[in-house]
Amino acid sequence: MSDVYLINENSEASNLTRISCKDEDKELQTLLLRNPWLLPSKQINPENPPRWLLVKREMPVPDPSSGSDRWSIDFLYVDHLAVPTLVECKRCKDTRSRREVIAQMLEYAANGQHYWSEGELERHAAETAGGSDNLARWIAENSGGGIEDFFQAVESNLRESRMRLVFFLEDSPNELRSLVDFLNKQLASTEVLLVEARLYESPSGRIAVPWLFGYTEEARLAKRASKAELARQGTDIGKDAFLKAVDLLEAPSKAAINTLLCAFPHEPQGRAYWQWRSYATLYLPEVQLTRGLFSVMRNGDLELAFGNWKEQTLPKETSPAAIATRFADGLEAVVGITFTEQQRQNFPKMKLADWMPHCEKILALLRSIVDSSITQKS
After folding, report:
1. pLDDT tens digits, residue range 219-269?
2. How far apart are CA 315 and CA 59, in angstroms?
3. pTM of the entire predicted model
4. What pLDDT is stored for residue 344 in this prediction?
5. Extended strands (E) in 30-158
6. Contacts made by residues 15-19, CB under 8 angstroms, sequence distance 24+
7. Which residues fall within 8 angstroms of residue 106, CB to CB, at 6 or more apart?
């Protein structure tokens, strides 16, 4: 960026003095906390500039090996379109503002994507906004909907990797700009952006000049094509939208998915039931109240939520960890696959073509797990 000049009433220009941050927390983070417009919305999306809602400062990020909070992201925002935006602040002289900060941000995004839930995000946002009434007012004015639908959309965007990763610095090395530019071109639905907030001293006080890097025209075209494809796939939330998407699949695929869907209630009741977002998730509330066992995606693939079922509660035979182990072992036997130890700790996918021929056996496995876990608990 070129120098910044102050023009006086005689049209004389004076070069403003550049200021460097001395304390990241007191300067960069506080600056952004009080001035979220320093995330330059009109540069990010000139056609529909994001309007920012702060969910939480220092948002906890769980460790996938334990499920407990281990890290925190400096800021978690969402915009008026329910797109999550993760922001990390770094000083230019911080050597981590090169390769390490990229790995750190990707780790935060990968884990937050799986562990942050609709209810948790809504709770943090309400606390930050000063109450549910204030939160509801912001959502109504900026998004036009209600709290529940808005945060369902936020969670859906997280699960589908529709998010922004923003590095907020006072200055950035060329190596970091190159890495951000490369990632932003490669990732179809995730935006990776770098915002410089350069500070200058003027006679009337400090001046902040935000500038966006990482959104070249080439990357913008790639994102536009990706968003068009997502629009064709459909991103509406809820049971009707999900079933409408399934109905577009070929008959054998549709039949296999419906076999699973029809086996358990479609409302929160009983020992196991489906909940609906842009996907369908099977919940076993008496074993794990707030986290599903697995999800059926719109294309018929399964996402297995082993990473959410690690707790060893009593009795151990019906703990979430025991259920996850039994589910994984059963799928290996039925489908003829082998999960690595790392997959058993995370959220592996299973393609529709791999599980569809074994649908009835998988259903029998699920019924057995539900029946035995409830019987043993009682």
Report:
1. 555 555 445 444 434 446 788 888 888 888 888 899 999 999 999 999 998
2. 33
3. 0.61
4. 92
5. 53-62, 69-78, 84-90
6. 16/200, 16/201, 16/202, 16/207, 17/200, 17/201, 18/198, 18/199, 18/200, 18/201, 19/199, 19/200, 19/201, 19/206
7. 165
Q: What's the whole-number mean pLDDT along residues 337-363?
A: 92
How many other β-carbons are positioned within 10 Å of the β-carbon of residue 134? Answer: 13
- Judge whether 371 and 286 are in contact, CB under 8 Å: no
CA dihedral 84, 91, 126, 62 (to 10 degrees): 70
Collect all residues with Cβ–Cβ distance below 8 Å to 171 and sequence separation of at least 6: 92, 196, 198
Position of tokens 């009433």?
A: 9
Inter-residue contact 163 to 83 (CB < 8 Å): yes
> Rounded CA gap, 156 and 181, in Å?
26
Q: Which letter does DSSP use for residue 279 in this model? A: S
Question: What phi-psi label fits residue 47: left (phi over 0), alpha (psi between -120 and 50 degrees) or beta?
Answer: alpha
The answer on pLDDT for 10 being more than 90 is no
- The HSE-up count of residue 82 (CA atoms within 13 Å, CB side) is 27
Question: How many other CB atoms are found less than 10 A from the CB of residue 360?
Answer: 11
Closest CA to 266 of 280, 278, 255: 280
Domain ranges for the chain, please list them: 16-233, 239-377
Q: How is residue 184 written in tokens?
A: 């932003």
Q: Identify the burial level of 47 via C-beta atoms within 10 angstroms of its C-beta, where 0-12 means exposed, 13-18 middle and 19 or more buried.
A: exposed
Classify residue 196 by burial, with Cβ atoms within 10 Å: 0-12, 13-18, 19+.
Answer: buried
What is the structure's pLDDT at 25? 59
Got the DSSP string for 291-310? S-SEEE-TTS-EEE-GGG--
CA–CA gap between residue 263 and residue 160 (Å, rounded): 26
CA distances from 34 to 159, 164, 206 (A): 29, 20, 14
| Mean local confidence (pLDDT), 175-180 | 83
For the cut 90, the answer to whether the pLDDT of residue 213 exceeds it is: no
Residue 272, C-beta contacts closer than 8 angstroms, at least 6 positions apart = 264, 265, 282, 283, 284, 285, 366, 370
Calpha distance 13→41 (Å, rounded): 29
